[in-house]
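User: What would this chain look like folded?
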Amino acid sequence: MMINFENNRLLLDFPDELGQLEILDLTTFVADKSKTTFYFKGPNLVSQKAQADRVLVFSLPLDIEPVYFKKYLTAQKLPKHQTNVVKTYLEQLLPYLDKLGYQFKMTQETLTTSPTKNAAKAQHRFSKEIADIPFYIDYNGAKAEVYWLKRSDFLIKKGAVLKQDMPLNQDGSIGFSQKFALSLRQEHAEVIGPDGVTTSDIHLKSVNEVGHLLYFAGTNSWLILKDKTGKSLSSHTIIS
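Assistant: Here's the prediction, encoded as structure tokens.
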């Protein structure tokens, strides 16, 4: 299997003509109708984009119908012969997906819980006023002062403390979130000291990247960043 990682995009070229898989953040995702898209939150498949923090995009083999592939994974009915075809295909992919830390099936909670109207529309809007407000992180061993300077520019001030202990999957493997976090730390290795304290300011493109770099993500970072009064970045910027 060929693997390529660049610009926060992981591309896997499966062997035996099984197709390709791209894994990327929502912030860099551009829809492509020729491919099949699934939304994930952490390692779990979810049904709504608003529930997700990343995207898995499949380029399928010619004998796999995208519509049936998606129906199967979202627990919808499809013709028996197509069920067998898709099931067989997934059985070949599961060893690779499992090693990436993904549970490639809908959980019962996902299937039975519909997102509220407000959750589906949750967005955050940048404003010039917000750029002057320092937000602080004190979470899970990480500490930092952060500014949202521009729509795609987050500044982590010098002296930030990064979480040192990396969480692993239950089987001891490294999950995608951790791999992404490690890639960010590698990009900025020259300003991260051996004690995990930054020696210079760091600029990142999103709240998601901030959470990954500082504490390996795993939570809603919009709620973790708080001003001096304890008001979250989400409360400052959320729109309905």
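Confidence is low (pLDDT under 50) at residues 108-121. If you want, I can go into more detail on any region.
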